[in-house]
Amino acid sequence: MKKKILLLGSKGNLATKIINFYKNNKNVSEKFVLIKSFKKIKNKNDLKKIINVKNLNFIINCIGYTDVEKSEKNQKIAYFANSVIPKWLSELLKKNKKIFVMHFSTDHVYSPKKNIKNREDSFKAINIYSKSKLAGENFIKKINSIILRINFFGKFKKRERESLCYWMKDNLEQNKIIQGYSNIYFSPLHSSTISKYVFDILKNPYRGIYNLGSKNKISKYEYLKILAKGLKLNHSLIKKHSYSNYKAKVKRPKNMGMNINKLMKKFKFTASDIKFEIKKNINDYKK
Questions:
Q1: In terms of DSSP bridges, do strands 185-186 and 218-219 run parallel, antiparallel, or are they unpaired?
Q2: How far apart are CA 174 and CA 135, in angstroms?
Q3: What is the spatial distance between Cα 215 and Cα 208, in angstroms, rounded to a whole number?
Q4: What SS3 state is found at 185?
């Protein structure tokens, strides 16, 4: 019998990629039934009605407010999406051991002083976005769940203008000089790769908090340079720049590189290289 998955926040960038992966992979659609929820949640009762699905096996929570700068201005909105809804979900499923929840968090919870790859227990939130996501984690981890700390890229139909790749491409095509941060590191995955991991994990899920990223980290500057070269844009217009939390409107973590050994060993997965993931991003814009 196929297992039922309820996808919350189905309009979001990652959710749409998960839906596309499900539609385009027969091996996945043969094992799972994906139920999409586009309904707005205003209160706990709204959420209760949405998750009231007969014989439900999994919930994937893609609801989130992810704009770092806007989170500082719209703190209530950030905490509602990233903390309050997870709190309600935790309360509603407190006694339910049959439903397994997959919840997405962020690599922004890491802000180490040393240039290391962050393990799951080395978190330190320094802005409203990361603090609200960390608060949400604390609620979700109380129930039958897996929390995946991620960072992803890709080409998206909605909110495309907010992506780093689109911003770079748009400016370089107009021959504008842009700055790439050489002191901010991350280890993202392409959205299609994360989508594959999602269904692989749900085949045999384990509880816990895990980092999900590429096996190596890269600076935002290096990422933009590789992208620009791959898209045959004038990469000399990308200038190396250092991010300063003292001068910035919002504090950002500078080292979001993640140690993914825990997840790779637990699920027996093979880690992906960052340059391979960026090639997927390049191909997005060549189609």
A1: antiparallel
A2: 41
A3: 20
A4: strand
Provide the b/e sequence for 106-137 (b: ≥16 CB within 10 Å): bbbbbbbeeeebbebeebebbbbbbbbbbbbb
Indicate the pTM of the whole model: 0.95
Cα(40)–Cα(220) distance, integer angstroms: 34
Q: Which residue has the tokens 């981890």?
A: 141
The 10s digit of each residue's pLDDT in 124-180 is 999 999 999 999 999 999 999 999 999 999 998 765 556 889 899 999 999 999 999
* Residue 36 burial class via C-beta count within 10 angstroms: exposed 0-12, middle 13-18, buried 19 and up: middle
Q: Which tokens is 272 given?
A: 């992906």
CA quadruple 253, 256, 259, 262: dihedral sign: positive
CATH 3.30.565.10: does it fit domain 3-284? no
Rg (CA), the chain: 19
d(CA 204, CA 17): 21
Question: Where do the domains of the chain lie?
Answer: 3-284
